[in-house]
Amino acid sequence: MTPAQIAELKPELADVIEYRKSGLSVNHIVGCPLECGYCVRHLFDNFGMKTPRRLMSDEDAVKQLVDHQYFRPHKTPIQLLNRATDPMLPVVKPHVFRVLQLLDDQGLTNHVLIITRWRVDAEDCAVLNTFKNLRLTVLVTHSGIDDPAIEPVNSTYAADSLRMLHEHAERYRVVNYWRPIVPGLNDSDEHIERARELSLHAHATVFTGLFFRKEIAAYYEAHGLPMPYEDTARRKIMPELAEQRILDTFDASRLPGGLPWGALFRKTSCGVAYAHGEADYNGHFGVRELCNICPPEQIALCQKAWNKPELADVERAARALGAVGAVEVNDRAIVVEGLDEPPRYFLQHGFGFQCHAREHPHLYRQHGRAPIGWEAENGTDTP
Q: Which InterPro entries match (predicted)?
């Protein structure tokens, strides 16, 4: 893209490095033809950009990443092209492979996450197996949504890619990314059975709900799509009953004669860490009810690695980032005020311990999700 074209983008889109919960996200290519109705590209006003275009060279993007104030070699998780395109599109994946090579050549061992719903072939798998240092994970988004107006890309593409990736995995790992789950749309017994079968072709399965912001709701309304919820939310929506149906099926698979099911997780980093035989780098072990579906061996691994940091160390780091008010370290998380998401994630990954904003509390059992569709322990609606 020309400088003039880049100047017309929203500032958030023009900034190619963004810190998200699963890591520093590199997004130097924007534009995607897949037209998934719920895509986060709506938030950046670029859903109409169908042709992927580079904002800068792969070399410059890598330099911006490793020079970023929040980047720590061998520690900070990295995501590639997960905000404004699909990394496995034919015109995009050569740049993905180039970025991976540039990072790997530096001897970096950071986790690197690639999220796709597009086609992956044996040749791609061969390339992904060549990287010697990076801890690479491919997360294949499979929703099973059958309505082409909401998801024009047939989910069989993702299912085929998942099987292909799992069959050829040597140095990388593959996660069945079961999302977004929307009650009444893709949570039928048939959909759950499909996810169960696919979980056997992955090193881990992660399930999550819909990210439904006002911009996405406006797109749904303008295109006459059925509104999944009456309200929008800043967090993903995963109603309690929908989750319970999934967990009931999962529990039944453990009974004598039950159908097999791969390891299931609520959080992305939990599934990624399990796939690599490591403790969760987001420190979710502090939120103990989150772990009640994890394999016992993974719980033991996370427990061993989980250490409550000293308040003085946390307060010193938080103040340097601009925290105001009281800084707290409890048995679940660091709690701060005055910090937006990037510095909170910097603290979280640095200490290996959850870091929450006091103004946006994580309510018990909701696991950081929107309160829509949940009830408090006493049976009343959550605040």
A: Aldolase_TIM, MJ0683-like
